[in-house]
Amino acid sequence: MAVLFSHITLSAENGSTETFLCGGIPENESGLENWTAYQNFLEDNPEIESIDVEVRSYVYGEGEVTDANEYEVAYFTKRGPEFLERSTVKPYEESNFIILTDNEEIEETEEPVMEM
């Protein structure tokens, strides 16, 4: 069995960055929202309006490919960054996307007055 996981780099317009591993290949915010590192990034940067996400996916092992679960990701993370350079870890796919947060300031406008 082969395990699919991704190395994620988050970058915000304020210069903050975060890197972490997650299971599978996230394609949008919903693929990241259950990962603690993503939640911590949002909490540490409440004023940001967008997040650039770089995804580098890898497969560990041989055979049928399944998404890594949280325990497998924790195991890989404990091995350190050198883990991605092992011969048993093969690059799989790369992608990028942008997450827009709900932190944009909304200007209040006066409601139109209806004349009768």
Describe the structure.
- By secondary structure, this protein is α+β, with helices and mostly antiparallel strands.
- It has one domain (2-100).
- Helix content is 16%, strand content 39%.
- It contains 2 helices and 5 strands, in the order ββαββαβ.
- Strands 1, 2, 3, 4 and 5 form a 5-stranded mixed sheet that branches.
- The radius of gyration is 19 Å and the shape is elongated.
Number of domains: 1
Strand content: 35-45%
Radius of gyration: 19 Å
The separation of the N and C termini measures 73 Å
What is the ordering of alpha helices and beta strands?
EEHEEHE
* Biggest sheet descriptor: 5 strands, mixed
Key descriptive features of the protein:
disordered C terminus, alpha+beta, 2 helices, 116 residues, 39% strand, elongated, single chain
Give the secondary structure arrangement, pairings included.
Elements: E1 2-12, E2 17-23, H1 36-44, E3 50-61, E4 65-67, H2 70-78, E5 89-100
Parallel strand pairs: 1-4
Antiparallel strand pairs: 1-2, 1-3, 3-5
Task: Provide a short characterization of the protein structure.
The chain is of the alpha+beta class. 16% of the residues lie in helices and 39% in strands.
